[in-house]
Amino acid sequence: MRALILAITLAFALPAAAQHYAAFTIPDSLTEGANVVVRDYNVDLDIRSGKKGYLKVEKTLTLLNEKSSANELVIYYDEGTRVRKIEIVLYDALGRELRVVDKDEVKDYSAVSGGTLYGDRRIKHVEVRHNTYPYTISYRYERELEGIDFAAGEEWYPQHFGYSVEAARFSFSAPIDFPVNYKGYRLPVEPTRSNAGNEWSCTWEVKHLKALPHEAYAPQAEELLPKVVCVPGRVSIEGYEGEFSSWEALSKYIHTLWEGRGVLPETVKSEIQQLVAGATSDEEKIARLYRYLQQNMRYVSVQLGIGGWQPFDAEYVTKNKYGDCKALTNYMWAMLREVGIEAYPALIRTGGAPVKLDTALVKSQFNHVLLYLPGQDNWLECTVPVGPPQYIYFGNHDRKVLLVKEEGGGLYHTPHLGYLDNIRSGKTSVQLSETGDARLSQRFQMAARDAERWRAMDAYYSETELKDAARENLLAAPGLLIEKLEVLPEPDKAACQVFLEGQSERFASKGGKRLFLPLLPVVAVGTAPPPCENRRWPIAIREGFTCRDTVSYQLPDGYEVESIMEETATLEHPTGYYQLKVDHQPGTITIVRVLQRKMAELPPAAYEEFRAFWLEVGKLERSMAVLVQKRT
Length: 632
What we know:
Blueprint: H1 2-13, H2 16-21, H3 28-31, E1 36-47, E2 52-63, E3 72-77, E4 81-91, E5 97-100, E6 107-110, E7 116-119, E8 122-127, E9 135-146, H4 147-151, E10 154-156, E11 163-175, E12 180-185, E13 192-196, E14 199-209, E15 227-232, E16 234-237, E17 240-243, H5 247-258, H6 266-276, H7 282-296, E18 298-299, E19 301-303, H8 314-320, E20 322-323, H9 325-338, E21 344-348, E22 368-373, E23 378-380, E24 400-403, E25 411-413, E26 423-432, E27 438-447, H10 449-460, H11 463-473, E28 480-489, E29 495-504, E30 509-511, E31 514-518, E32 539-541, E33 545-554, E34 559-563, E35 569-573, E36 576-585, E37 588-597, E38 600-602, H12 607-621, E39 624-629
Parallel strand pairs: 1-11, 7-19, 18-20, 26-33
Antiparallel strand pairs: 1-2, 2-9, 3-8, 4-5, 4-9, 6-8, 10-15, 11-14, 12-15, 13-14, 16-17, 21-22, 21-24, 22-23, 24-25, 26-27, 27-29, 28-29, 30-31, 31-39, 32-38, 33-37, 34-39, 35-36, 36-37
Helix pairs in contact: 7-9
């Protein structure tokens, strides 16, 4: 009652403008589970032609607590994407204006990363600080769009996890005869389409969207959050014109950007012919040329203007001995053409778990390029300085790609690396002393995912960093001192061996006449899934692997097993398989553990069973044996 009276009193006391942003006017249904409430969020995209558009953004947010970064504004731009009219106003809990953010507080930084030699991408960034919650920030800015940023289109998310929405609107307009590819996802409304004069437009308006929870083991955000995607259906970038009417049309357009850029110098052509002389198969020729690329060229990102989509030519790479993913792929493509092997660039979205590409919406949804070999039905990743040819790499597996062809290529799917491909097999020997200290040796054979990681770490990590990685990923032993660590990648396969020797103080805990011994010192699985009441999202496991480990213990003289698990434990679930076998003989204990995590998608109702399975796996992983001194 007091809160109601206070709200009514404030409503009469405050001006109408302040009431609009006062936090007490937010309905309880929008504060439940929310860290931020979107009060207004209006975006207008004005597409003028295939060359240019204008974007106007007005966004007002009320921050309920410190659990978000909504007090930061980040705007990316380049020479073709100018930012205009940035206005930011801060309001208190009652909706009263506190201050207008000064222009000097908006910082301008280069967006060039450490792996980029040079580029024209930049960031405008401001962080608005206020210590008393709730408070409200209003952002307004405009962008002039050209080039790749314009051609890539706009994605509008009215809310993120932990955000609720009072009101939000997205609208685009275009000349009456101009095609636009657009689609709304998971929105409670359909767009309103209208014609006015020489323009047509579409508008989405949403209101009173409750906060969405962030949950562990859910699909990626872009598969869950409401959004609108809008892309010009016809573009003209630096004189290159094309249409996005189909995937084949997009492929043709990208091909025009690559056309004529694969001409090798005559000296390189001669060198290539000498390099493949005597090769008895195309596979051998591919391997020789791939090694030549790895040994002579290095990956450096160069992003200027249309360079985000167009490769530097082969002569540039020859001269400078470096290039980005497009330039190196183009160079490898040119070398293969020189020796008569068919290949095509394949645009891909690399990194992280595979994201489901919407094949119904034609849009450049890619950030990387591979080379596809149709004769071998295989792939070349041209940016890695170490690694085998014709291997997909984990960051590229199981996802859609667009082949770049003169006549227009279609969508293909890269191979899947599952739990039977990503394998780590290990043998660990432990010589235990009567004080609980231990000497340990390990030997691992890895394939695919883990082999990639250890090959890369061996190439780039210092000795100290490698040993830290071994402690974190291979051997969980207290006070571990690693005396020897060898990483032996296989040059022509996605395989790697790791050898480790060391000693651990207090490996087993001593209590009187007993030693308490952990059965599994080998790292295999992380923390169990957290509790999640009223689960909303499906369970998505998009990374599979298998760990097989044998651990052999040599017990100290005078000790015997007093307590240990006797029966084999076997657990099964759609997301995994686990088996733990224990054998003990006088003076020895042998542990055999098999752990498999399988890719799966399950409904929300299956979460408790899923969590219970992995909790039980974690319990078995912590199994102990009790050793006791023999009676004399």
